[in-house]
Design brief:
The protein contains nine helices and eight strands. It is of the alpha/beta class. It has an eight-stranded parallel β-barrel with strand order 1-2-3-4-5-6-7-8, surrounded by five helices. The model has no long low-confidence stretch (mean pLDDT 94).
Length: 289
């Protein structure tokens, strides 16, 4: 089977939206990719209109480039599990528009962070109990699912470094409480490596995997922190053959999107990085899948 290979916007256009969606689409076509993952809040402004989205969608189709998933960094500062109700409502409002943008673009999946007990790199964010994050994020997702089902856009919750849902078994219990085909996991193969092999997630979660982020992680001198994420997806602990074999066993047909945020460069994390974008696209293209 042939996997759909894409690149996340940030390595190409940065966190400030320095490149337009159409520039990224042009670049991806030249790079030989199947698609791109646009990001809401920088590349795509949250107040973008349906007409603007339709233009981007038409342009991507004319170039033969897919727009199957969207991502955002919004939830680190405004959470669906916030104790403050005004903040939680703001996160809900954002997500409703996010779902509509995906629908207008023809994307089938949006990346969502359900909550965080702690945002380690932002001391201004409150520390919350695990139980409270479980309960409030569950409440928020239940409020969002009717719209997701109406628009036929999947909500994919990413396994991120949010000190919440540490293992595939926790994810299984969490996702199954919703009993909705529109909810699943946006599985990042690098993010889980501190505790569990990525292929174990795939085996346990199966059809709950709606999208996959490709990156790598090296834990030897990372001390369990973000510095383990480097700028070469071919170097690290991920056994990509085992990952791809596991995906084939569950008949996975969603996107494989490389997300390159090389935290090993901190405190000088400078994006965009066009050289890294090109290097990553070539590595992804050349992967033996």
């Amino acid at each position: 089977m042939a996997f759909y290979k894409a690149l996340n916007y940030w390595v190409y256009g940065g966190f400030a939206g320095e490149k337009s969606p159409c520039e990224f689409i042009d670049w991806a076509k030249e790079a030989g990719l199947d698609g791109v993952e646009l990001t809401v809040g920088d590349c795509l402004k949250i107040d973008i209109s349906e007409a603007e989205c339709k233009k981007i969608s038409s342009y991507a189709k004319s170039c033969g480039i897919g727009l199957r998933s969207l991502a955002t960094g919004f939830y680190w500062g405004t959470s669906l599990s916030a104790a403050d109700e005004a903040e939680r409502q703001a996160a809900l409002d954002f997500t409703r528009k996010y779902l509509k943008i995906a629908n207008w673009l023809g994307a089938s999946t949006i990346l969502v962070v359900p909550g965080a007990t702690r945002v380690a790199w932002d001391p201004s964010r409150p520390i919350l109990s695990y139980q409270s994050v479980w309960e409030r994020s569950t409440q928020s997702i239940n409020e969002l699912l009717p719209l997701a089902e109406e628009l036929k856009v999947g909500i994919a919750l990413e396994n991120v470094w949010n000190r919440f849902l540490f293992s595939p078994m926790e994810w299984k219990f969490y996702l199954e409480q919703f009993n909705s085909p529109m909810l699943g996991i946006y599985f990042d193969v690098g993010n889980c490596c501190l505790y569990v092999r990525p292929e174990d997630y795939i085996e346990m979660l199966g059809q709950r995997i709606k999208a996959v982020h490709i990156k790598n992680w090296q834990g030897e001198d990372a001390g369990g922190n973000l510095h383990g994420f480097g700028d070469d997806i071919s170097r690290g602990e991920v056994d990509f053959k085992a990952v791809f074999d596991a995906l084939k066993r569950i008949s996975y047909s969603g996107p494989l999107t490389a997300e390159m945020i090389p935290f090993s460069r901190l405190p000088n994390l400078l994006l965009p990085d066009l050289a890294l974008a090109s290097k990553t696209a070539k590595t992804l293209r050349d992967m033996d899948i």
